[in-house]
Amino acid sequence: MIIRRIPFSFIASVALVLLSFGTVDCSCLATETITPVLVIHAGAGVEKMTSDQEKVYGAALAAALKSGYAVLQKGGRAVDAVEAAITSMEDSRRFNAGCGAVFNHEGKVELDAAIMDGQTRSAGAVADVTGVKNPITLAIEVMRKTSNVLLVGEGANNFARQSGLEMRPPEYFFNKVRWDALQEKLESEKKKLESEKKNSTQKKSSTSSSSNSKPEHKHEHDPEHKFGTVGAVALDQFGNLAAGTSTGGLTGKRWGRVGDSPIIGAGTFADNDSCAVSCTGEGEWFIRYNVASDLAARVKYQKKSVVEAGDEIIHGVLSKDRGEGGLIVLDRKGHYSMPFNSDGMFRGYIGADGEPHTFIF
Length: 361
What we know:
- 40% of the residues lie in helices and 18% in strands.
- By secondary structure, it is of the alpha+beta class.
- It is globular.
């Protein structure tokens, strides 16, 4: 066997090159400073409010921002900051999530939530869960402890119990304001049904010919319908993004209806290569247009800013089809946007100054 000697000078040159590359990489990592940012929303379609009410809701938003940002200031991860912010809103009876959630048609509270890690694209979500104090935490458990993405109904409830999550009895979720809203909706549905029956009877007895007319099918948009959801997007000091959303859905929802919030790509999405997004509004439209991932694709492939991409989606794509709502979006450079096409949207951000900034209208 012939052993060929490699000149020492060659070895030294290679070593220096490798060392220099390593030095450059380490130096960049050591000197790069990323300022954490947290952006939240708590529902679109806000009605007019008194100044006192604005202060109360503003304080609740500020508390959520402070809770989430405290995690980031301590060097915490984006996912954990999102959880902290959303948990704060789930524990507030001001918003349609957690103990402040609306009632379904049968007078029960069914909760949805989702989380997505922009670094790994790992995701977890739950839908139609009951008795779970903090659905966002359950979504994170799904992401971290199972190979699944979405769990629903009693299966998700069982997983929550097995995971040792906090459960609460139905009384914990009772909210008189939400209950009264359900009663109003049920009464409205009753009157509408009676009116339709009356009109149907009149048409049958009418002698006017209508056999050649075609039925008109169109989307009936209720201008008085408001949307409640809470969400958060975060950028941590490591440059990682995360997005989360939690909701009680629509007042009087039926048949196990699920909106966009727990649907990855529709109401929730995060990817370090583009941005983090959390949506709120008329969920069916956000699902149909795959809003969250569409926005991220515009940022990633068309190189659009989060402001431009967000406006295109909310004021272009959705508005053309009468889809109502809003979203929050954040990229790895700390740029964010909070567009909406409804009357208002509970929202806010916190960044370098460490002070919460909240808005409603």
